[in-house]
Amino acid sequence: MRVARQWGHMLLMAGLVLGAASAWAGGPRFITGTSGYPMAGVPMAWYTNAPMYFTDPGNLSATVTHAQADAMVAAAAAVWNIPTASVMVTQGGELAEHVEANGADVNVYFNGTAMVFPADVQATNYASVQIPVIYDSDGSVIDMLLGSGASGPGECRQNGVVESVDSFGSTGTIQHAVIVLDGLCVGSDPNQLTQMQYQLTRVFGRVLGLAWSQLNDNVFTAVPQPTAAQMALWPLMHPIDVICGNYSYQCMQGPFTLRPDDINALVTLYPVASSGGGKTQSNLNSVSVNGTVKFPTQQGMELVNVVAHRIIVGQDGNWEPNPVYSSTTGYPFQQNGGNPITGVEPASENAGAGAAADEGVWSMPHIAAGPQGAYLYFVVEPVNPLYVGDHAVGPYQRPVISMSGSGTQSGMISIQAGASGTMTISQSNASANWCQNADSVETNPPASSSTGWWNGPICFADYTAWRKTAVNANTSWTIEVAALNEAGVGSVQKLQPVIGVWNQADATGTLPTVASQAAAMNSMVLGMTQLRVWAAASASTYRIAIADQFWAGRPDFNYTARILYASGVSPATLSAAGGLITISGMGFQTGNEVLIDGVLATVQSWTSTQIVALAPSMTTARAASGTAVDVEVLDATTGGVTDIAGALTYNLGTKDVVTLVSAPASLETLAMAATPFAVRVYASDGVTPAKGASVSFVVAGSGGGAAVATGCGAQTGCVLKTDATGLASTPLMGIAPGSVTVSGTEVSGGASVKVTIADANVVQTVTIGATAQYLAAGAAGSWGLSLTAVQDAVVAVGVPVVWSSAASGFTLAPATGTTATNGTEAVVAQVGAIASGSTNVVMGCAWTSVCASWTVYGVAASQWMIAVSSGGGQSLVEGVTPAVVTLLVTDGAGHALPGATVNVYQTAYAWEGVCAANGVCASAPVLKTARSTAVSNGNGIVQVTPMEVSGVAQVVRIAAATGTSGFATTSVLVAP
Amino acid sequence: MRVRGWVWGGLLLAGTVGGGALAQQRDERAPAESVGAELRLLASRAGVVFVGQVEKIEFKDQPAGEPGGGVVEITFSVQQPVLGVVGGSYVMREWAGRWTGGQQHFQVGQRAMFFLHTPSVGGLSSAVDGMMGVVPVVPMGANGVALLDVRWLATRVRRAQGAPLAGATGTSTGGIALVDGVAATKAWQTSEMAEPKGVRLPEGLLPREGSPAPLQGVRVEQSLGTGWVKEVDDARR
Predict the structure, then answer these.
(1) Are residues B69 and B168 located together in one domain of the fold?
(2) ipTM of the assembly?
(3) B17 touches chain A (CB under 8 A)
């Protein structure tokens, strides 16, 4: 078959289960609860398959007679009388009286405590009259029940037909319902009667126990545009009409035709077990499917809508383009399980069973299938958030929960006619959050987070999250729980948090003994529940519970909790001038305000556990000296408050007030701090400057630290007078590294401020760039030296420098100076005749004791060495001028040696040519001799110009001697 | 868009009204043409309008065997009177027949702009036009402008089959400023009134399909906390 090629089978038929409707029917309006019924979670149908209605004997209105009204009522009821449903709604007769709340024959009235109806209308008469239908010809009954004007034409769409199912049997059945038709809603326009018939048809559905149903909801929302086929499938029991004009019945196709979804719901409640008496066995040519929608954690997911797509086997083999049936999950599950904070749910809200297996249950027990059965697949979709309260798609009491995960499409199931199947749908991408066991036990809750903030889930039904926290006496605090959607945004479509507080020592299993917030979302922030706990006279540890108002729980129920609590203020006493205070606690956040006796303080910093604020003066705070005032932290965003009663006292007294104006953040040894230590003295009013007050400054070291107050003549303390502004100050200079405490005390009253400052050694260095020098003994020398002073990696400017030397014969000029802008100071060191073998040291010192040295050595003559550096061994021809011969004088270690006397001897010999290989070389005649003396320069160099005898080939021999043993020779050949 | 408070023309209810002068009255069955107009219609039918919060719900005097026979007292705190009421509290007594079978018309803590009928001679009342007369207030923080969630009101506005709900598209999705709603309500008798400007409701109210990576935690056995066990009506209320 075409279908088989399109799909792989996910599930085969799950066995033949003949058609008795399962215990779980789709779309029930009423569900039995845990109290008063033999079994909870059972959809409620009429106790009889033949509930009868009895009409009011009067006319419906001035223009609609009793007969016309009866015909209309019959037509509306007949819509629900179908062969495959066992129920038959028929007229049983008439009421004994025209029911009216106005006029001479009033028989409906309120007696001060309850509505009084005629006896045959009352619920206690259900055995005889199941459904009284009142013709409220003048609207007085409806006005009596709903308020003045409720019967007016403007409310006909809502109140034209009023119903109440007002009695249920102890076995979980519907016993009685009242229907009131508003005569003011029908007149001469036949559309009005048709409109009432349409509304009454839907009301009969409600009276029979059907819930509203969501299917092809785009017919209502028009997003996307609905097709004619979708309009044809839009259930008669849709929650809210489309209003296209005066008469909403004109806004839908076939307003008196049950859709398959309506029939499924009806047959679920009223199945036909076997054919006969005009009824057809319900499961003939139908299939039944039930299942569960689950989170990845395997927990059922309630309040999502499951819709079914179908192929009827034996028909054209194509999937029907639109879903045909629907069921909302979790309808048999507890709608309000009560919770530890509010206690057991009220009896009026007791509906559904607490079994976890019911939480994601859905059911479509009667899907028309044809003789050969059907192929089906299912899609999970979110419930329209507008379908709450009177428009709820089922017995739901809580706001619609936004769906977790994407709409999942199931695999295909094929089922034979008369059989049933099961489909479990695991919602893709849904939350897979698990609970921490640590906070689920009331007897041993964990402490709240030290920051006051924490996150958590309420991840399955009947789960309560517990915490404990300690709170000081006389302090109010606030707990806030913000429900989050899966994007972490505050939401009203997930958890509905409620909060309870007990003393930790109180018995468990009781209602909150200290405070509670039993209704969710009470704060001014969307999605947040807030509870302010008032101050207690003594410190205490509290037990806190967070739960869902309906005691539901799911993996997508997440929250952020916060305890806003101020635990203390330091200092607890301020001068009248005010000053900085530190508030400790938890749950703080940026932007929180601080109020001192109701007056805003200037907040300087926030962390989650500390706020630093500048408290206003006593005058500004409207406080009295010696009287404690409250300190409050306010979160203006949420309205959360924590308040410490009597946390702060302003002390005026008779003493002057001293406040700190400035102090250096740190000191450096032997360095003047840029910021002075300054205090200001006020009169006892905290406002008037005290001129001429005596302030005692004391500088005390600790741990090796020391400093002086240079305003005190570099002493460790003195008394100074304040100026006209009340100011007294002194610069500070560190003396030794370590901590230093500096105080300023107003002498007469003793008010004082003090600070502790760390003194650290400066890092000072002095360098002399010149390297050590060497000088031939007896020679005179002059050297320019430069000292560089650096402090903490920065050149030191203006630092005194002293040069000194103990070397004999040395002079230093200038001997003192001050470092320039580049940190340097220069000196010229001179000696007339350096001593032989001497080591002469020149010292340059900055900051008195930070020094560098330079050394010049006097080299003894015995150490003088001389060598030809260049120009030796020249070989020339006549007419070429020989190059200068360079001689280098060094000491024995190879250091260039200035100042050494060098004697140079030159002898020019006639060139005799190449000496014969054999025999004696001819002795060359001396042409000329010369003798000179030179002194090696600063680089130890002596230059010798070779002498010449012009016009003659010659060999000039040069010999140089220095010191006592330094000797070098070389020659210059001038060939012909 | 400026909307006329009174719609001319339309049908009358023969036999209930008559006379040439009344031929020009608004057809009371005609649906509103806008959310603002719907607010004014609610106000025209209400005896009491206020912005407030449900403080307490009490079932009173239910006759035996007739759960719908008694009344339900709903106590509201009136935070902002609009029509027909001063501040403080307001107690409405509603026919318990509307509360049977687990149906909840109001929830404790519910915050809304309430349009309530004038009490009947028996002292009973209800919200105008069913729960349409309960227009949820959306808190937007201490410094924010509170909104009215008018999505349900939008369902009462006339639209053609296949046309989307009023204000359902674009940037103005589902809300109006509370102050605008109150002003429109107070001025319900004015013949011309500017339509309140649509405002998008915050994300936490609008449906959001799909989910990001879920939070992870430590799996534990699903069991009730041992410290509190639900009892069947142990009178802990």
Answers:
(1) no
(2) 0.80
(3) no
